[in-house]
């Protein structure tokens, strides 16, 4: 099952999934928090701080510019 959400660019996005689901977040200008178990996380075109954590999956992050606050990424 796939979900596609369109939200205002500056919103704080929090997403998570378990077992075989992948997370992709693109073009969000607000803070992003993503958590996954048994799947990957891809965050692209970010400009603010982000946190991504996965167990048994890859984390792929791309920024448009350097964030001004600390970011955390775990796998």
Description:
Helices cover 0% and strands 48% of the residues. It has 75 residues and is mainly beta. It has a domain of 50 residues. The model has no long low-confidence stretch (mean pLDDT 93).
Helix content: under 10%
Number of helices: 0
What is the topology, as strand order, of the major beta sheet?
1-3-5-7
Given as residue ranges, the uncertain stretches (5+ residues, pLDDT < 50) are: none
Number of strands: 7
Could you give the distance between the termini?
A: 24 Å
The main pleated sheet reads as: 4 strands, parallel
Shape field: globular
Mean pLDDT: 93
Assign the structural class, choosing from mainly alpha, mainly beta, alpha/beta, alpha+beta, or little secondary structure.
mainly beta
Roughly how many Å is the radius of gyration?
A: 12 Å
The proportion of strand residues reads over 45%
Return the string of H and E elements.
EEEEEEE
Put the structure in a nutshell.
This is Adhesin domain-containing protein. This protein is an all-beta fold.
Topology record:
Layout: E1 13-18, E2 23-26, E3 32-37, E4 41-46, E5 50-55, E6 59-63, E7 72-74
Parallel strand pairs: 1-3, 2-4, 3-5, 4-6, 5-7
List key phrases describing it.
three-stranded parallel beta sheet; Adhesin domain-containing protein; globular; four-stranded parallel beta sheet; about 80 residues; about 0% helix; about 50% strand
């Amino acid at each position: 099952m796939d979900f596609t959400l369109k939200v205002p660019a500056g919103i704080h996005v929090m997403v998570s999934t378990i077992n075989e689901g992948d997370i992709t977040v693109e073009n969000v200008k607000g803070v992003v928090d993503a958590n996954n178990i048994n799947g990957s996380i891809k965050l692209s075109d970010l400009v603010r701080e982000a946190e991504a954590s996965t167990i048994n999956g890859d984390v792929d992050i791309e920024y448009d510019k350097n964030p001004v606050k600390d970011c955390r990424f775990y796998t």
